[in-house]
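Shipment paperwork, digital attachment
Item: protein structure file
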Amino acid sequence: MNAKIAHSEGFRIINNYFETQGNVPFSFQTKTWEKYTQGYSGLVIAPTGFGKTFSLFMAVLMDFLNHPEQYHKGLKLLWITP
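Attachment content:
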């Protein structure tokens, strides 16, 4: 993982959340967080219960925690599910 992200306040908060639950993020989740912070968009495909929600939602949350001044009123995340 990118050192800049790994040392960010948002990552620290989210990683602490995982630890309090007795978990660690899967590598595909941390890769998703990194790609999101680099401006990529994409699609995460994994079986049900595998952690897709955390890979995507936490990426947006981490970015908000790291850069709250960049977020203004309006849509930030569109979640489509079957």
